[in-house]
Amino acid sequence: MERAQKLLNEKTELENEIRKLEADLKSHGADRNTALVDSDGFPRSDIDIVEVRTIRQALICKQNDLKALMQQIEDSLLQLHQENSPPAPKSKPFARVSIVTPNSPASEAGLLVGDKIIQYGSVDANKDFKAMSAETVNNINKPLPVKIERVVNGKPTVMDLTLVLRHGWGGDSLLGCHILPLDV
Prior knowledge:
Elements: H1 2-27, H2 49-84, E1 95-100, H3 105-109, E2 116-120, E3 123-124, H4 131-137, E4 143-152, E5 155-164, E6 177-181
Antiparallel strand pairs: 1-2, 1-6, 2-3, 2-4, 4-5
């Protein structure tokens, strides 16, 4: 928080310096775009060209400094926001795969025995386990996203799979696996 506040104070100071340089430029009868030569290509005699160019150069440097400072402020505020944000709620598994039939839609999608299901289409731990049946019937021959948790090298890993539920794969069910609630 202190770093962000310090950067904001620096920004205010830098903006004040830019305004002062623009006022200095105006006091010399010029702005950032005023031509420094006349229509014949000769230096204008009514403007102190060296001073105007020096002020313009300082303005360009200050503008570049301001741009870099704005990026630092953005990064600082993002970091501050991330530090103060509550962690995203972790989805928890609600079911587990107990059997997978070879060459079934479940097998082809990559489901393995022991996988824990975090999300099955629109069904997650907040819905009744029985809602999986309706989700299955409503998604025959359509891709059904499934989020699972699988232990890989001793660590729980979340994976996204896609099931395509269908009749005629050689088994009696649409899915080709047996899924149990986690509490069983």
